Amino acid sequence: MVARVAALLGAVSAAEPAGASTTELGKVAGLARPTAHRLLTALAEVGLIDRDTKNGRWSLGPEMYLLGAVAANRYDVSGQARDVVNRLAAETGESAFLSARRGDETVCILSAEGSFPLRSHVLREGVRFPLGVASAGLAILSHLPAGEVDDYFSRARPVGDWGAEHSEESIRARIEATRITGYAVNPALIVEGSWGIGAAVFDQNGRPSWALSLTGVETRFKPDRRHELGTLLLEQAHLLSGRLRS
């Protein structure tokens, strides 16, 4: 039951700010519509989510804000990372992000738009991806010990749902490439023409708990520039890791 509720809350969060219907949320959470509706109604009764009476779409409720405000004292790193994310966007012209690991997923918690007029719209604050799918999650997964990577593949929902390029074999190949360069590359595997590069950020225990990433259109991610962007990401990720450790 707890896992079902958590999956629904994650789906509602990813649908912000427009919200989503019961059917859409049930599909994302892997629940039958009647089950999703029953759980959503119960969550709404305690204020964790809210429903628009005009269009019937669900969104996060006021109690989620209050809980989040309290938890921010322990977990929110956006204040320490905001200047880094803004600097990445300003120096590259691309969209820059900070994502946090949450179990077997990453969730985007901070973003800044670059000056280049053409943008990728794959990632935004609140959006979640399985580890290994987007560049941020791939960067984190690649820096976990080998045994933890094996454990991830043994329990993760089929990442192949994202296409043949997200089979375990394909992701493991990208893990090896990431371990060589230090930064992860998503060569338009989620949306055609939309590239991403990510670098892991480490916590006080040396664990990859966050990732910085840049996304943009394919023409902006040619080989020479990918190396340039990846190097910049690694520099800023190292800076932020040191800041968070202290």
Automatic annotation (TrEMBL):
Q: Name the keywords, alphabetized.
A: DNA-binding, Transcription, Transcription regulation
Q: Which organism is it from?
A: Mycolicibacterium sarraceniae
Alphabetical list of Pfam families matching this protein: HTH_IclR (PF09339), IclR_C (PF01614)
Name of the protein in its database record: Putative IclR-family regulatory protein
Answer yes or no on keyword Transit peptide: no
For molecular function, the Gene Ontology terms on record are: DNA binding; DNA-binding transcription factor activity
Q: Name one GO biological process term.
A: negative regulation of DNA-templated transcription
Where in the numbering of this chain does the HTH iclR-type domain appear? 1-62
The record's listing under PROSITE patterns reads:
HTH_ICLR, ICLR_ED
Q: What InterPro entries does the annotation carry?
A: GAF-like_dom_sf (IPR029016), HTH_MetabolicPath_Reg (IPR050707), Tscrpt_reg_IclR_C (IPR014757), Tscrpt_reg_IclR_N (IPR005471), WH-like_DNA-bd_sf (IPR036388), WH_DNA-bd_sf (IPR036390)
